[in-house]
Here is the input.
Amino acid sequence: SVMVIPFVYGIYLTFTSWDGVSKVKPFVKFANYAAAFADSDYWHALGRTAIYSLFSVILINIVAFALAYLVTSGIKGQNFFRAGFFIPNLIGGIVLGYIWKFVFNRAFVAIANSISGGSTNSLLSTTNGAMFCLILVSVWQYAGYMMLIYVAGFMSVSDSLKEAAMIDGCTPSQAMWNVTIPLMRASFVQCIFLAITRCFVVYDVNLSLTKGEPFGSSVMAAMHVYNQAFTYKNYGLGQAEALILFVICAVIGITQV
Here is the structure.
């Protein structure tokens, strides 16, 4: 009931022109959905979210898989490395965004200035740079969590199967591709699904790292929905756009699974 009742109530609000404050909730039928489909800023934000999610999901899973392979290969202190790689996931998105904002605006700029001897602008001050920063921070945050799922996948593959493949003439890379990876299907499904759903609804890092700047070029779908509902007081429209975002995430997630 904690999830179902608010969800159903939210659907009801999409048919009203409620401002989020007043007691009166005028019924406007499908006007909010028509306005949502006509809202070019929303679709631009959704397009940016799709691009951000595409690169983030691919990089998160590549990095997570590589880290999982590293910490299951028998290197010395691998348990320490597992804990270290997972720690970024424990930091809240708001705090994480502010930490990396300082790194991008101060640390990296200072290093670049000392090398070039000139004045270097922060990556966050450019359109492409802000998107790159969001992707980088997301990979840094989520890769450690996905790594644990891949570690479980690696550990679930019996050593006897890999040894049998080696005896049959497989090289280590062929054994990885033809034996280990196919047996880790469940890990790939879980990691890709979690990465997609998390990236599509990103808000906290978006807020603290870029605030949608410069010039609104890094506003993601969740931030646009929040602004629509709580900043511009168009709660019904914001809720309709949120529902559309939910449906898109659900379709992508179910299709991927």
